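This entry is listed as follows:

___
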Amino acid sequence: MKKLLGLVFMVLFLVSATNFTSPKLQNEHSLEGTWELVSFNNYDGNEIVKTIPTTDGYRQIKMYYNGKVMWTRYVPKDSSEWFGYGSYSTTENSLTENIEYMSATMVKIAGDLREFKFELVLNKDNYSQITVDEEGNRTFSENYVRIK
C-alpha cells in the first residue's frame, strides 16, 4: 500500500511540474486563411469614389498559408484560366505577393511583373489590398471577406 501511495504521489508531482501550454492561437488579424473577393473600390486621391460589387457567378478566391499564396478566378462568360501561386509577406500596412507560377492568361497581362505590392487594410474577417500610384495616392482596391 505504501508503494502504491508513493507511486501516486510521484505521478501527481510529475504532472504538477509539467508546463501546460495551450496550442498557439492564430493572430486575430492574420492574413492566413481563405478569402473571397466581394467588391472593388475606385479612388480619387485617397477617397473612395465608387464601390463595385462582384457580378453574379464571378468568384475570386485567395488562400494564404505559411508564407504562400494561391489565387484563382472564375468568370462565367470567360473560358480563360485565371490562377497564380507564389509567396507573400506582410507588415502592419503592406502586402507583397511574389507570384512564381501563373496561368497563360495572367502571363499575357502581367508580362515580366512578378512582384505585386499593395497597401493592406486588415481586419479580423475582411481585408483590402490597395494599389497605390507613384505619388502615394490610392487608385484601386480589391476587397475580400474571410471564408469560414
Q: What stands out?
A: The chain is about 15% helix and 50% strand. Residues 2-17 form the longest helix (16 residues).
